[in-house]
Design goal:
Number of domains: 2
Helix content: 25-40%
Strand order of the largest sheet: 3-2-1-4-5-6-14-15
CATH class of the largest domain: Alpha Beta
Distance between the termini: 20 Å
Number of helices: 12
Structural class: alpha/beta
Order of helices and strands: EHEHEHEEHEHEHEHEHEEEEHHHEEH
CATH topology of the largest domain: Rossmann fold
CATH architecture of the largest domain: 3-Layer(aba) Sandwich
Number of strands: 15
Largest sheet: 8 strands, mixed
């Protein structure tokens, strides 16, 4: 099989779909790996490193897209890439289709087989390909939130760690999954007063044990959220419904409960965001202010730390890429229920129930 890896074209996206060790594994398994010239530079990987691992360096993205049977990316296709989509292509990347009806239709019309990293799901509910980037984004949320709390960045002028004699900042995290836990670890590491609000009481009990009571856990409700917004310096939106739009937990009028200069980092923006006032931003222009509240809604947060992110991502994605390349698409799906969960579109049919429900489209079951 020919595995293609193009350079990402999303603004300030420096990650790449594979690292040299992944190339070597695919080549040793008998496959051809075609990588666009310069694709790895943003992650500190030069073409020579890929060549040494056995890759063929292509002069253009057109060559990669045209020859690939399996295309490994990081982010969803953007409009300049739409004409390159074609029947039979296996597209293996983060898709986050729920808030993107236009892209969904393009993929359906092109009849690609779209495997979304974020919906590959084990029987216990774990999302193995989303987890590494959720870890990165959760940890980054506190870093960027701390920065934008600084007065020169427009924030309240609060140091999350505090100092002796002055209370630390208050961090409120919505969601108790991978993003939320990693954000909590970072916030508590800085010394911030940290609260997680979640709906899964068993999960909250686990976190209470894990952090030995240092993390305040609260059962989610509108009343509880409103009480916490009043106190929060930094709010991290970490809610997730796999494959579906994020629930809008923070309504526009609730921003009035928060103190001017507080910061909202909406990590859920890939799935539409958990605040009514959230809209996607970029690393080039990451924040905007609504009703005095700073919103950070960068849709590819891990792209800011591509060296870490690219290697972490390949660690997770490579085994499934090898399965599809070695066995073929249909056999790989038959043998792995987790990978089957990742198929969002197939031969012109929308096979993700969550995306279909989010967009009011017809859903088609998938079996091989």
């Amino acid at each position: 099989m020919i595995v293609g890896v193009p350079k990402e074209i999303k603004e300030k996206e420096f990650r790449v779909g594979i690292v040299p060790s992944g190339v070597k594994a695919l080549v040793q398994a008998g496959h051809t790996v075609l990588i666009e010239q310069g694709a790895g530079e943003g992650s500190g990987i030069d073409d020579a490193g890929y060549r040494a691992a056995g890759a063929i360096i292509a002069a253009s993205a057109t060559e990669v897209w045209a020859q690939a049977d399996l295309l490994m990316k990081v982010k969803e296709p953007l409009p300049p890439e739409y004409p390159r989509l074609r029947p039979g292509l296996i597209l293996y990347t983060y898709l986050h289709l729920a808030p993107l009806p236009e892209l969904t239709q393009v993929l359906l019309d092109a009849q690609v087989s779209g495997v979304a990293y974020e919906t590959v799901r084990l029987d216990n509910g774990f999302l193995p390909l989303l987890a590494p980037m959720s870890q990165v984004a959760g940890r980054m949320a506190i870093q960027v939130g701390a920065h934008f709390l600084e007065k020169e960045a427009g924030g309240r002028g609060v140091l999350l760690a505090g100092v002796p004699g002055v209370a630390p900042g208050q961090v409120t995290i919505l969601g108790s999954g991978t993003v939320g836990v990693n954000a909590a670890q970072m916030a508590m590491g800085l010394g911030a007063q940290t609260t997680i609000i979640g709906r899964n009481l068993r999960r909250l009990a686990e976190l209470d044990d894990l952090f030995q009571g240092r993390l305040l856990t609260l059962a989610g409700s509108e009343h509880t959220l409103a009480e916490e917004l009043v106190k929060a310096d930094l709010v991290v939106g970490a809610v997730l419904t796999p494959g579906a739009r994020a629930p809008k937990l923070i309504r526009r009028e609730m921003l009035g409960l928060m103190r001017p200069g507080a910061v909202l980092v909406d990590v859920a923006i890939d799935q539409g965001g958990c605040a009514e006032t959230s809209r996607p931003t970029t690393h080039a222009d990451p924040v905007y202010t609504v009703d005095g509240i700073i919103h950070y809604c960068v849709a590819n947060m891990p792209g800011a730390v591509p060296r870490t992110s690219t290697f972490a991502l390949t660690n997770a994605t490579l085994p499934y890429a090898l399965a599809m390349a070695n066995k073929g698409f249909a056999m790989a799906m038959r043998e792995d229920r987790a990978l089957l969960q990742g198929v969002n579109v197939y031969q012109g049919k929308l096979t993700s129930r969550e995306v279909a429900d989010s967009q009011g489209r017809e859903w088609s079951g998938l079996s091989f």
